[in-house]
Amino acid sequence: MKLKVVILSLSVFAYTGFTAQNIQNNPGSNHGNKFEQLGTILPTPNIYRTASGAPGHAYWQNRADYNITAYLDENKRNLKGSETVTYYNNSPDELEYIWLQLDENEHSSIKNAGYDTSSIIRPSTTEQLKVTELPIKDNGYGVSLEKVTDASGNPLKYTVNKTMMRIDLPKALKKGEKFVFKVDWNYNIGNRMKMGGRGGYENFPEDGNDLYTMAQWYPRMCVYSDFQGWQNHQFTGRGEFALVFGNFKVSMNVPADHIVGGTGECKNYDQVLTSDQLSRYKKAENASEPIEIVTLDEAKKAEKNHSKQRKTWVFEANDVRDFAWTSSRKFIWDGMRVTIPENNNKVMAMSFYPKESYGLYRKFSTKAVAHTIKTYSEFTIPYPYPVAQSVEAANGMEYPMICFNFGRTEKDGTYSEGTKNGMIGVIIHEVGHNFFPMIINSDERQWAWMDEGLNTFTEYLTEEKWDNKFPSKRGPAWTIVDYMKLPKDQLEPIMSNSENIIQYGPNAYSKPATGLNILRETIMGRELFDKAFKTYSKRWAFKHPEPADLFRTMEDASGEDLDWFWRGWFYGTDPVDIAIDKVTVATPNLDTDPKAAQEIKYQVEKPLVNSFEDLSKIRNRQDKNITFYVDQDKDAQDFYYRYDRGQEKVNTKEYTSKVEAGLPLDTKDKEKFKNITAYQIDFANKGGLVMPIILEFTFEDGSKLYDKSSAQIWRLNEQKVSKTYYFDKKLKSIQLDPMRETADIDTNNNLWTSNGSGTETSKFQLFKQKQEGNSARGSSNGKVNPMQAAGKS
Description:
Elements: H1 20-23, E1 63-73, E2 78-88, E3 95-101, E4 144-150, E5 157-161, E6 164-173, E7 178-188, H2 192-195, E8 200-204, E9 209-214, E10 220-221, E11 224-225, E12 229-230, E13 246-255, E14 259-262, E15 265-266, H3 269-272, H4 275-284, E16 291-294, H5 296-304, E17 310-320, E18 325-328, E19 332-340, E20 345-353, H6 358-379, E21 387-392, E22 397-399, E23 402-405, H7 417-432, H8 448-466, H9 481-484, H10 504-523, H11 526-540, H12 547-558, H13 563-570, E24 578-586, E25 598-603, H14 615-622, H15 634-644, E26 654-659, H16 667-673, E27 677-685, E28 693-699, E29 704-709, E30 720-727, E31 731-736, E32 751-753, E33 759-760, H17 763-776, E34 789-792
Parallel strand pairs: 1-13, 20-21, 21-23
Antiparallel strand pairs: 1-2, 2-7, 3-6, 3-10, 4-7, 5-6, 8-9, 9-18, 11-12, 13-17, 14-18, 15-17, 16-19, 19-20, 22-23, 24-27, 24-34, 25-26, 27-30, 28-29, 28-31, 31-32, 33-34
Helix pairs in contact: 6-7, 6-8, 7-8, 8-10, 11-12
């Protein structure tokens, strides 16, 4: 329904205090900095990163190409690897050394990052008790470096500092040069179900088999960037990774009955698959429904016999920042072809899963993979890679073109709706990470939210397109309320280092995702937001964006000043709590004569001059080269001449003007306006974070109207504002934020009803009572003033 607002002359309302001047709150002491520009909070734009949020004309980034061979020893649960790395220095700087990540040192008792946390006595059984080892002994995990050499085999000097390794170069690596080096290493693969972490193995005691997820398994180049230099912050297990793009060729030697999935495309399926499996794979390449490449029966059969033979799988991947793989004889494997409309890219969507997941993964996994890359392509950039894979591994973690998820049925094959939805949500989330941060390659070690938050937001959009009734836990504004209600000492700004966050899930995932959804639905609107978000994705695909690049691009591409939002939602911890403080209701006094004109007299007895003449005025008057405009008017010249010398006063001239207060109200007008009611709604910002004011008006006849004021309404007073509406029918209630779209933490102060309890006696009501009293004493010509007013907190 179209909002109908009737504008009346203020003189129609008998209460003289009801004026625009008095309604406007005095901004003076209530004005903070919520709407000030971020300014120096953001890094200064330069030739690498522009003020618009786009990469600058001199933007650069280094790259690294890898040629890796790996040997998986299932009996010893050990991984042995050898890599040749070609590192390209595209920076303007000379590099005397380079840094690599040794992430597997996370599992070492003596080589980990050493980031201790508090510990307390917990209830435990005697079996769990053990004497604290001091000094701590080596548990046998972590990277064992066998050899580090240059391309010719000459040893290189290197230093390992916990989870980081510095290689000192024989000579400085100049701009445009490349350096080739080799590393041989091995490590004992940990049981990730007990030790935690992303990479490792899971053992299935029922059949005696392992499922391997090989992640962070090779020495990886750190990022050297224009905004930070070397990103060599230690890996603690939480803050994820900052990695460079490059091309990979990886050969994995595994037991012959293992099935392997990995980043990129396998180049030798004809050598590692049976003829039947290869035939099914080729059929799946053109299928619109998932086809089993390795069947359930084949997987069950493979579980029973541990082959002593070995096979080598060869994978290649271009323009990726990482490489991960999985290996197990337990895998069922299915796949189908999905075409990305935006670039006509034909992608092989695939899933690998043990029989324990068959009832869920066979139905949903590959279809969810296909749906995810298609939907993300709509909202960001077209998916550029040839494959996308989901692996059921009882956890959730992402890598280019492959991710590890969970989702197992009960032993009888049944599952709950919650398990199904959880599995689909995790698959969408982890496959979605192909875009954030695998392609739009942010620094996860510093800014977890640029990885998890942006991805969780796009996950929410994708879940909605999967099933409009999908029970999303993150994204909708109302789902963040419980977190925003927490005491301030339990909250950190989103703009916090990933290692320092207490409430990691809400801070890195939920709050940024919710903020982006509020921007899209409530502040910017879908059209403006979607264009700006796609612009950011396109600008920074295959590059290294920082928060300022996102903030600036969103404003640059939309024409919206969002600094107030970044300041409040990302840099602050204030919640949203906007309250309807009071509603004042007034009806018009139709007996007031708006035709009566008010005469205003202006008398000019002397010119208006400053009380003090400053040095500039005196010098200008003495300057013969300056001609004043007033000198061109003789009357004016004489006027000022006489005044300046204190001569006779100038005869004053009297000016009058009539200010029309409104049109005369005849009988027809009175009939037209008799049902008009004014509602002044006073709002209080109790939470501190400004937001748009969204109102639902419900009238006594059951009809509804809606209105929204942008957050800019708080510019001149960040604590209190008022809005006045005129309706020709009676209001029953006013609901603030009816769709719970601003994450308001207290909805108890969001409703006003015309017959609610706690009604205050307003100035309008007091005025009316006074008029009625005068009428009763015969002092108002026997007329009762029809002004009616009521207020409610």
